[in-house]
Amino acid sequence: MKKIGLFYSFKTNKTALIAKKIAENFDKKEIDSIDAEEVTEDMFTAYDNLILGCPTWFDGELPNYWDEFVPAIEDLDLKGKKIAIYGNGDQKGYPENFCDAVGLMAGILEKQGAEIVGFTSADGYTFESSSALRNDKFCGLALDFENQAKQNNKRVEDWCTQLKKEFN
Amino acid sequence: MAYTDIPVEIKFGIKKTDKEILKKWYHLMALGRALDNRAPNYLKQAIGWSYHAPYAGHDGIQLAIGQVFDKKTDHLYPYYRDLLTTLSAGLTAEEIIYNGISKDTDVAGGGRHMSNHFAKPEFNIHNVSSCTGNHTLHATGTGRAFNRYKQNGVVISSQGESSTSEGYVFEAINGASNEKLPVVFVFQDNGYGISVPKKDQTANRKAANNYSGLKNLRIIHCNGKDVFDSMNAMSEAKAWAIENQMPVIVHANCVRLHSHSNSDKHELYRDDNELQYTREYDPLAKFQRLLTRYNRLSEEEIAEIDEEVKAEVKAAHKKGLAAPDPSPDSIFDFVIAEPYVSEKYPDGTHQLEGEKKKLIEGINDTLKAEFRHNPDTYIWGQDIANKEKGGIFNVSKGMQQEFGVGRVFNAPIAEDFIMGTANGMSRFSDKIRLVVEGAEFADYFWPAMEQFVETTHDYWRSKGQFSPNITVRLASGGYIGGGLYHSQNIEAALTSLPGCRIVYPSFADDAAGLLRTSMRSRGLTVFMEPKALYQAPIAATPVPDDFEVPFGKARTRREGKDLSVFTYGNTTHMCLEAANKLAKEKNFDIEVIDLRSLLPLDEEAILSSVKKTGKALIVHEDKVFAGFGGEVASTINEKAFEYLDGPVRRIGSTFTPVGFNRILEKAILPNAEKIEKAMIDLIAY
User: Could you report the per-residue pLDDT of B442-467, keeping only the tens digit for each?
Assistant: First the structure.
């Protein structure tokens, strides 16, 4: 497996906590943690396997650090890249846009040729709508600290096991 | 179902948008923010701007609304937080300050309206009410005018998401959807209605989606904090609305960086974490970061614009402080627009004899004649036209057949919509004359009161820049066994509002003449129709084809010297009956004056009659307590007291609702018998 670039905002709490859990599931040599607040095109394209921490903000938006990087992404050729996305949402408080940012980011990356990996089952979640939903699966890992925090560890572990099989 | 899945064309982006445009946008955003930040200082220094609702956090969508707006083709209804919207749409920095500190030079209306209500009617940027979201109905009304006059443009209405909880917002959007009108409704969603969070407003966090069941409507969601997403959404919305002649909702997610206004303290209900992340999502800061990150503007170029803005604000501030204040002598200017002046019938009387017309015929004939006379006339209301039916009482019978569905049409059962869209349609052109059946019965006009009140304010509030030229027809009063909701007289409430005229004829000829004058005048006139008299032979008269009755001209229907009786509507006939009876039986000589017009009131006729007879009886169908007669009585007491030989008496309904059972109705409403007794008592006094 090629090296993984784990991109998330170091200023965050929940997203950073999950990033650390993800990193623990890989060998230290297999994964680099990069602050998404400082991301550049070169840093982003340096990896063939990427994991992005992408929480949903407001009523279904990307956080600023990703949103402001999107114009750069739109000029990148991401063919051959395998990218997995995780995000935090709130099924009860924001059921109309649960983990939308995961789906938004996936769509942007796919347009540039990236392959999104790490799809997970939507079973066990209750929400109204999600941009991350593709048929009956999320196009990434959907986490919910507010309502299903106890399931986070298991979900992260299972996802990392899956990624090890799906990554380049 | 609404169109919700059509992709938005991406026309604008940090990399693809022309540099000069980016500079212009940054300049506007920096200027707006400088004014927004400066506004509270005026209050602290006791200069003015006592109401300021900061827009910071709405920067993207407000810039976009103003940028897509074209004053040559479009109309804009901003709300009280739309400082940047109006600046971006064409107001200058000094015009913002003139409004903020309420100067006579304020282009919205010379300091008459509250601060932060930015407008420029000359640019079709409308002066709107403080009732939040109430202008959505005006936008729909203007959209209807766009449709009728084939205007190639769009109407844009802007509001906060909380105001979408108002029922009239649904009426507006439902109407625009039903009539397929090119209106863009923008919801600027900052998550709060003052301190009330979205969850306490509606179950749907995305309030726009509450409208997803409506047909002929597109819903676009955008990030109102982001300039490009907002520009793309608004450009798409405008183009789509024009191309498809259908409304669009643009729901823009914003943040509110500050308190609701300077009377609010958001620290009382927002925690530190929320305030912190809200600041991090400041749209202006984001735009700056994008400009420099993608090398579109350098730090130096941004600093240069910031310096320009400082100088511009300083100059505008100086102009603002030097501008004249409004004069206290001007308060009576622009209360209501000047009425049509009758040259042929200056006192509203005629000598025609011959065939009599019923009151309903007088109204119907006049409506038709005026529609033939003026192609810019329209009428709508509930039940107004369907095949052979024309109005709940058939007053508008035959009009749709003659003038077509474009000018004579039904309205939904939504009285506020009827009134509010009249206001909005009237804003399109001063030449338009509108007639609305305000409700099936006057009793049902109450839901329209907020729009009625709003409409009475417009001419004064805009300092004469906009006159709503509307005649509101209301079938009024009782004596039909109609009970509590088919018998009401509501004129006492309406006459308390400056900015409208109220007329209440009793006879066919006066009805025809007053209606013609109403329909030819600028301004708002309420035309009360005593429905019990529509078919009554007693109210039938000869009616000259071109008859006109000026406002504020009472008509003496019976001359006398023993007692003056002032009345209108149904009771005019009872007064005449009683006076004639007493003339025969007791040789009393009683003068009966039909006021015809309550607002303006013919004080001269009232005082002149009282001076002649020395005694005054006021009779109306409405309740005596707090009825309009109290105003007439006070006028007599104040201005003719020394001529009185007895107390001013009033006869009207008891202070109860009108009962349905005929026995109750008779006990409650005035009649000739009760009037006759009062006449005898007063003459004997």
Answer: 999 999 999 999 999 999 999 999 99
Report the distance separating Cα B102 and Cα B118, nearest Å. 11
CA distances from B19 to B121, B550, B651 (A): 32, 61, 75
Report whether pLDDT(B490) > 90.
Answer: yes
Q: How many CB atoms lie within 10 A of CB B419?
A: 30
Give me B138's structure tokens.
Answer: 């005006």
Please enumerate residues of A whose Cβ is less than 8 A from a Cβ of B: 57-61, 64, 67-68, 71-72, 74-75, 94, 96-97
CA–CA distance, B254 with B282 (Å, rounded to integer):
9
Among chain A residues, CA nearest to B274: A58
B205 vs A59, A71, A74: nearest CB? A59
Domain B359-539 identical in fold to domain B555-684: yes
CATH topology of domain B555-684: Rossmann fold (3.40.50)
> Is B486 among the catalytic positions?
yes
Q: Tell me the C-alpha distance between B673 and B666, whole Å.
A: 11
Axis-axis angle for helices B359-373, B508-520 (nearest 10) = 30
Burial class of residue B355 in the structure, from the number of CB atoms within 10 Å of its CB (0-12 exposed, 13-18 middle, 19+ buried): exposed
Q: How many helices (H) and strands (E) does chain A have?
A: 7, 9
Residues in contact with A159: Cβ distance below 8 Å, sequence separation at least 6, in sequence order? A22, A84, A86, A118, A120, A141
Mean pLDDT value across residues B181-192: 97
Provide, as residue numbers in chain A, all residues whose Cβ is less than 8 Å from the Cβ of B209: 96
pLDDT at B438: 81
> What is the rounded end-to-end Cα distance, in angstroms, of chain A?
6
The beta-carbon neighbor of B253 closest among A59, A71, A74 is A59
Supply the ipTM of this predicted assembly: 0.96
Please write the tens of the pLDDT for every residue from B238-266: 999 999 999 999 999 999 999 999 899 99
Q: Give chain B positions within 8 Å (CB) of A97.
A: 205-206
Which residue out of B350, B486, B573, B620 is catalytically annotated? B486
Q: Chain A to chain B, count of Cβ pairs less than 8 Å apart?
A: 37
User: Where does residue B618 rank: exposed (0-12), middle (13-18), buried (19+ CB within 10 A)?
Assistant: buried
Count Cβ atoms within 10 A of the Cβ of residue A9 and give its class: 0-12 exposed, 13-18 middle, 19 or more buried. buried
Beta bridge partners of B472: B436, B526
Indicate the CATH number for domain B359-539: 3.40.50.970
Domains of chain A, CATH where assigned: 4-166 (3.40.50.360)
Contacts 24+ apart (CB under 8 A), B397-406: B397/B364, B398/B364, B398/B368, B399/B364, B399/B367, B399/B368, B399/B371, B402/B368, B402/B371, B403/B371, B406/B148
DSSP code, position A26: S
Range list of β-strands (E), B290-410: 377-381, 408-410
The reply to whether residue B290 touches residue A59, judged by beta carbons under 8 angstroms, is: no
Dihedral of alpha carbons A70, A71, A74, A79, sign:
negative
CA distance B532 to B393: 11
Residue A3: HSE in the Cβ half-sphere, 13 Å Cα cutoff = 13
Answer whether residue B385 shows pLDDT above 90. Answer: no
Give yes or no for a contact between A35 and A12, defined as CB atoms under 8 angstroms apart: no
The Cα A72–Cα B335 span in angstroms is 58
Domain boundary assignment for chain B = 19-321, 359-539, 555-684
Q: Please, which residues bridge with residue B357 across strands?
A: B541
Nearest residue of chain B to residue A65 (CA atoms): B286
CATH superfamily, domain B19-321, is Thiamin diphosphate (ThDP)-binding fold, Pyr/PP domains (3.40.50.970)
pLDDT at B387 over 90: no
